[in-house]
Each structure stands twice: as structure tokens, then as C-alpha cells.
Amino acid sequence: MSGANAWTRSRERMRLFPELLAQCAVEATAYGKCVTATTVGKQELKKDLCLKEFEALKTCFTTAVRFC
Amino acid sequence: MYTLASKRVFNDGCICQTLRACMAKATGLPEVSSHRNISTRLMKPEQILSESHYRLLRCARHLSGRPGGAMNVFDRAMKRQQKKWAASLQDSDKYDYLRSEIGLRVADRVYDVARTFPLALDVGCGKSYIAEHLSKDIVERFFLTDICSKSLRLQRQSEMPTHCVQADEEFLPFKENTFDLVVSSLSLHWINDLPGALRQIQRVLKPDGVFIGAMVGGETLYELRCSLQLAELEREGGFSPHISPYTAVTDLGNLLGQAGFSMLTVDIDEIQVHYPGMFEVMRDLQGMGESNCAWTRRPIIHRDTLLAAAAIYKEMYGNEDGTVPATFDILHMIGWKPHESQAKPAQRGSANVSFADLSKIGKGPPQQQS
Predict the structure, then answer these.
(1) In total, how many domains does chain A have?
(2) pTM of the predicted protein model
(3) Which of B16, B58, B220, B229 is least buried, going by the fewest C-beta atoms within 10 A?
(4) Which among A14, A33, A50 has the least Cβ separation from residue B234?
(5) What positions does the domain Methyltransferase type occupy (chain B) (predicted)?
């Protein structure tokens, strides 16, 4: 595919993701710990089980995007 | 086995020119054929295959290991597109590290077989990572086949003369008993009908020919698979497969045996590559041309799911230095086409030493027993 299209644009945006995620290391670790706790504990992983941690991660991420 | 090639012939009669030419050479029959109508659709006369070509394709269909024919997991047309895209990248050399390493290991195994092979075939070669490590006194002539012509054009330098053929691995356009050596590196995991493909490889080998292959299998990319699965479960409430199903190492022995190979050797190499994060893993897989092409794949992954999966990947599998590992389990296999000169198992009752003598090794001169 040559030229600029939706795929090239989204691929460009995705290239920034790793750096932005690095800025939110704390929230990412918290979310990760919440999900991995279900793999060892008795609790089954259900939809939105770690919603709070994910919302925190998402707000940190969108703030990083705005200020990058 | 309802391969791409057979589908094209039966449905609309078009078939890749290269493939048709090769098939004509393979069966030794003229290319332009009789006017037998194979399908009920209207076809141009030059696209109709001859009776024997039709029989060849029909035979190929019944070579499938599965009762009732097709096992259709992967979209081969999409895979060809992905390989073409990967080959057309400016920096496609950056993603070659895994393939060159495995190519080197397969070439190593070819060297271990102390023979000269006049004619060899590389199935699914991509840019050809094996031929460059082999010398002219091991392999005299090399045939390279791949589903994507673009990567064949970018083929790497090698010592011996090579011929490139664009062909699907599931339908090799070669005559029986042609090749002394068939190699395959990291392309068998995209084949729909693996038993059929292995049987075809066995067919094109000469008796006492050898097949040396490496394919991705076992627990490859289990970290990526688990992270995506957990993220999708938590974010969306369900999950869909993002990583292809792989052959287990235990099944490989059976597959090779069923295909008619003897004196099998199967071993497994685990390669762990460290990446900065999940996005780099996915980008490298895309650059290698290894994107998902299963029919059941979802066309999109949500941003939230990707973000969640990256966080989970780091937390569950991350190393101390901040990198994340990605595991590639490479299954190496060697199989020989049966021949009278090969060693057979000994007859029952022909043993002339006892296992009990094992304990006497290294204990000084053996006692004379009556």
C-alpha cells in the first residue's frame, strides 16, 4: 500500500504508544497486578473486574498523549 | 485438500501461469490441452486443463490427512499479501534476524549429513536463508519456492546456481522422485493441510532422500497469546484467537511417520528474544510477514485492549531490566525416504549380548561364563 491512508496513519500513531506507556509505568503495573492476581487466586477473570485500575491507566495515557 | 490452486481451477479456470508451466513440465505433457469441460462455468479454451492435469489435481485433493478433505484454517491469499507487504518494506532486513538464525541452524544440520546432494529444494524459502550458508560441494543445484514472488526476487546471494519457482507449499509442481534434499525453514506453520504437504514432500524426494525442516510450534509466543487473552477477557468479556494454532512436538513424529518418512529425528530449540514492550513484538512480527491470517481472526483489536495487554505482558512476563521476552519454539525435524540401504530394526531373537552384561563394563576383564 503506497501513499497515506488510514493504515499508515494509525501505524504512525501506534509508533508513539511505547513511549507513552513508559510514562505511565506505575498505573500499568497496578493494572497488571490486578489482572495477574486472578490467574493465581480463586477469582475468575470477568469483564471490568479491574475497571478502576484501567481507568487510571487510560487517563494517564490520554494525558501523556495530550502533552507529548 | 481444497488448496488455493485447486479452487482456482475448479471455480474459474484461472491458474497462475508459472504454476501451470511447472505442472506441464512436471507431468511431461503439453500445456495447451484437450477441450474437456471440467467445470460447468464458461471458460476460455486455453484455460481448460487436460484430463491428466485434472486427475493430478484430484489426486492431490485426496492426499489430505483429514477424512472429508479440507482443513482450512489459514487464508493463503492474505498470507501472500502480507509477505508481499513485508518484502516491500524499506527496512525489511531489520526483521530477518529470526529467519537467518534458523536458516543457519538448518544449514548446520545439512552439513551433518555427510553427502553431496545434486538437487535440492527449499519449500517456502522467503528470501532464502539456507542456501547462503551451503557450499557447492554439498548442494549442487538449488530450487527455491515460495508463495510470494516479491521475496523470491529479493533472494540472498548463494554459491550454487538457484532456480526460483513461485508455488504454493501445499501443491508442489514437481515430478515424483526428483530431489535428493528438501529443506524448509519457518514456513510450514502457515500450511492448512500439513499431513498432505508432508506427503507431497515425501513424494518429490528420491528414495534415500532426506527432508530437513524447521517449523515454529509448541508454545511459541505464549506470552503474547496469554496477555491478549486476559486483556480481551477483562476489557471486552470474551476473547478471540490472535495467535495461530501450532503443532505440538509430540504430534510431529506421528505426522512424519504417516507421511511415509523413516529414521525420524525431532528436536526442539527454544529461542527467547527480548523486546522493549508488547508493541515492538507485534511490530516485528508484522515486519517478518508473520501477521495473523486465520479465517477466524477479528479484523480489529480495540485500543483499550491493546493498552491493557501491553500492561499485562509487562507485569506478567517482564524482566528486571524492563524488557519483555517473546518465546519462539522451533521444532527441527529430519526424515528420510525409505530405501533398501537404510538400517532396518534387527530380527527378534537375534541378540547375542545380554543387558545384564552392561553392569560389567569397566569392572576389569569379564569372567568366562559357560
Answers:
(1) 1
(2) 0.76
(3) B58
(4) A50
(5) 121-212
